[in-house]
Each structure stands twice: as structure tokens, then as C-alpha cells.
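Something for you to look into today, if you have time. What I am after is a single protein written out in full by you. I want to see for myself how the chain folds. Could you add the entry underneath, on a fresh line?
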Amino acid sequence: MSFCFNFDVPTHDPDDVAGNELQNGKKDNAAKHKEEDAKPAEPVKEAKEHQPPSDPEFLLRDAVTETVTIGTLPPLHFLNETVFEKTASEREDEEKILSRTVEQRSDLISGVYEGGLKVWECTYDLLELIEKDGETFGGKAVLDLGCGAGLLGMLALQRGARQIHFQDYNSTVIEQLTVPNVILNCQENDEVDSGDDKEGRAQGEVQEDDSCKKEGKEVKDGNPPAKKRAADLSQHDSLAKCRFFSGDWSTFLALVKKEEPQPKYDIIFSSETIYNTAYYPALHETLHKLLAPDGLVYIATKSHYFGVGGGLHLFETFVEQRGIFSLDHLWDSEEGLQRHVVVLRFRKSKEHMNN
């Protein structure tokens, strides 16, 4: 699985003043500078809700899937990334992001396409942490913010969440990737619940044998599993728990705030979304307004996104300056490009929790 950003990466002299400031812990000025200078490439994208198709069969026709199994977590199925890219010309794409990403050979076009077609590595970090902590999501409302393929939200669905909302910047990502992936896993749930075709399910998928029940992840590419039976969506109790949204965070927030009652989420997931400092205000406001009073925000991220400018250190400073949330580190990688999983929760103040 490849990861790349199509940006020129500047080189820095070790004696560079800005570099020394950051290394010396003077992050406040750096964060302010980044926030002022970094601006989205295009106007915000209007949010809208997407309804799953009444007949899911065409979304999964000739689909080639991958399955990720992490420890004791239920297997999560999603469309194979390489095949998805190769069949881009066959898919509906009003935003034209599929052709543009191929032409520009880029996993990110700021303000146009925000990386949702890739499953980024920090998502796996967060899945592993969830497996280790034993979170079951029973009865909770969950938001997968910047969901992409939707693995985090799908895990919550598999583990008993009562409501799961998926949001991504691009409508093409939601319609062509997130929704099919959720349908794929909903159909799997239906088959498990009914006890039908257990042997057929085993074909072409990662088995939960002793080799899979270990710490860490296993991802298997393979031949397409047995063709999923087409079924009326009314039969998918799991899918009824899900809603799907696209658009900029600010317009997404405005859209859901119109609802009565306004949604509040017990858990908000967000993986690899703090790479651009220009988006911090909208992200912070969305988290502030939609998190339940005792809710938790899990953010999986890298320390720094080269060529883009954001990363955990600047986001930490931004959060601290706002004074709404406390931020704690749950996991920090010790090798290679540093990755982290952090949790945000409201500071214990009525003023901060008053929306």
C-alpha cells in the first residue's frame, strides 16, 4: 500500500530560525503562523447526506475485497484499493477526483480531494489500540469523521453501536467506497446472524484461526469472496443504524445542527485528518459542537506531514490555545516516522461544555 503527497517538500538548514524555534518548544508562534498562512485551495464544499441505493448489488458486482483482521476484532471487509483505482473510469464521479488523482499521481489535492480513497496507516494504529483496550461500543452513538473507507465506523457497527454516522469531504468517496464497504459488512452480519452459508463465507477471506488471533494486523488480498447475495436493504438492520455525509466540516456541522434533536456523539473517530492547519478551526468547532458531554474524540495522526505543514505538535498547541478540550496521548510509536493516537475530552467546565 503506497502513501504519497504531491507537494514540493522544502529542505531546511539545521540553523534555520523557525526550525530552532520549534525544537526549542516555541510552538505557539509556529501554530499561529501556520494558521494564518495556510489556506484551503478552494471554497468549502457544501455538505449533503447520501442515501444508500435501494439495490446494493450493482455496487458490489465483480468487487474484489480485502479483509483486515486485528487480534480479536471482527474481520473488516473493504474494496481492494488497487482494483478500485484501476476501475476508476467505470465509476460515477461528478467531482472528477478519480481521474484527477490518476493524472496527478497524488493522494491529496488540497481543497479538491482529501485522501479518502486510501486506507492510511494510522487507521490501523487506532484499530489496534481499540482491540487492546477492549472497547465494545455497546449502545453508543459514533461519528467516523473523515471516514474514507470507513473501517473505524464499521468496527463500531460490528461491535454494537446504536448509531454510526460516516463523513468524508468527497461525495465520490462516500458513494463509491464508504457505502459499498458498509453494505459489504452489513451483509456479512446478516449471514452470521442467520447462520446461513457459513462455509461459503470462509472462501477467500482471512480465517479466525490461531494464526490471526495475535496482536497486530493481517491484511489479505485474494480472489473475490463468494458473491454476496442481493437483498432488500430493509433486511439490513445494521445498515439502518448508519447515515452518510459528504462536505466540508463547517457545512457538515451546519447541516446536522438543523436537526431536532441535534446529534451528539459518544465517540468521534478521526484518522489522519490534521495534516493541514487551515482546517483546524472547522475541525475543532465540529468536535466542540457534536461531542456528547462525557464523550471522547480519538485522533490517529503522524507527528508531522511533510509538504503539507500540519501534524500533532501544531494541533496540540491549537487545542491548548482554545481551552475547550484536554488532550492525552494514548499511544506513541517508537520507531520510524512517529505516529500517535491521542484522545480529546471536554475540560470539566460548564462554560466549555455549553453549546
